[in-house]
Amino acid sequence: MTQQDSQTLARAEKSAASQITMGAKRWVLAACAVVYLVALVLPFAGGVAGWQVLGLTQASRDARTSVAEYLFVWFSFIGVGVLTSLAVALRRFAVTLPAWMVTTVSAVFSILGIWLRNQSAPETSRDIGYYLAMLAVFVAVFTLFPLILSRSEAQVKVADERAKVQQRDDVALLQQSATHQANAREENPLLVDDRRARAAERHRNI
Question: Most CB contacts within 10 A, which of 14, 80, 120, 164?
Answer without folding.
Answer: 80
